[in-house]
Amino acid sequence: MQINTQRQDWLVAGFAALAISIHLLESALPSPIPGVKPGLANLVTLYVLIRHGWRLAVNVSLLRVLAGSLLLGSFLSPTFSLSLAGALASLTILGVVWHIPGKPVGPIGLSILAALAHMSAQIVTAYILFIPHSALFTLLPILLTVALISGTLGGILVNRIIERVDTLAPHE
Amino acid sequence: MTNLISKKNLSADFKLADKVIFVFSLLLVVTSYFYFWQTTPASYAIIKSPQQDTLQVNLDHKKIYDIQGTLGTSSIEVTHGKIRFTNSPCQNKFCIQHGWQQHHGELTACLPNRVSIQLASADKTASYDAINF
Is residue B76 situated within a structural domain? Predict the structure, then answer.
């Protein structure tokens, strides 16, 4: 069977594969607090957003969540719902901010907003679905602090990666 | 090969909007500590034991409740917004050492006697406290 593929499909597949690999590697890292991860896989989403637009970023991010969960065996588990909720929330805010005319917000701003949205959506989902106890929100300030730090560092990293890629392969 | 972690001035990475977002996010995060880490005083306590009906007691008075548990009677003291175990027929008396409880969401229990106290405030109740898979 022959499937007609376009350049876009190749990009989605390639970036999704990269994001999934990072996602898997990251899940092997020990974490001091449950749910605290550096969110490196989301840097791929951010890079794709800036270089190739929002639709491609949505594809890559959702594919990563889906395939990542299948590979880790967490498909349709609580972890998966949290992961999906985080991805949807950050994609939504990225979509809104990215489409502001004049594109005033750079990688760092986008990254911070996405990280905070990701974390908040996860904790709200956890509250609604799994732990409907207000004590859960005691964790929120710590998690938001981590999100702000990792979001800022991730944004700086993506900014530098994009500058570097731009000098090697100028944006079409 | 330029390094990604170079000596380049960090502020060059930030656009104006990025700086604004960073500052606002920082404020948001700091505010969240004040908002989510404040404690709400409890207004009532729910006392549970398998030996008797679940009791909902108001905390704005002074009284001692004797609760029948599986081992014997636990005494629970209520004084103006606070509650504690004063006596219990268990071995280690962890419940008594746990002391006064007074904030919404707090929980204390005498496990051997299977008596538990859960503190809550007027409009915040949850039908269950957690689901595990």
Answer: yes
Task: Give B60-113 pLDDT, tens digit per residue.
Answer: 889 999 999 999 999 999 998 899 999 999 999 999 999 999 888 788 999 999
CATH number for the region A7-168 comes to: 1.10.1760.20
Report the DSSP pairing between strands B52-58 and B44-49: antiparallel
Domain ranges of chain A: 7-168
Domain encompassing residue B49: 44-120
Q: Is residue B2 a part of any domain in this protein? A: no
Tell how many helices (H) and how many strands (E) occur in chain B.
2, 7
- Residue A94 parent element (H or E): helix A78-98
A109 close to B (CB below 8 A): yes
Average pLDDT over all residues of chain A: 91
Is B58 within the bounds of a domain? yes
pTM over 0.80: no
Is B26 domain-assigned?
no
Please state the ipTM of this predicted complex.
0.87
Task: Work out the angle between the directed axes of helices A140-168 and A41-52 (0-180°, nearest 10).
Answer: 50
In angstroms, the Cα distances linking B69 to A103, A128, B65, B86 are: 66, 33, 12, 14
The domain that holds B79 is classified in CATH as 2.60.320.10
**Residue for token digits 């548990």?**
B69
Residues on chain B touching A158 (C-beta within 8 angstroms)? none
Number of Cβ within 10 Å of residue A89's Cβ equals: 20
Tell me the residues of chain B between 18 and 37 that have a Cβ less than 8 Å away from chain A.
Answer: 18, 20-22, 25-26, 28-29, 32-33, 36-37
pLDDT in tens, B10-40: 888 899 999 999 999 999 999 999 888 877 7
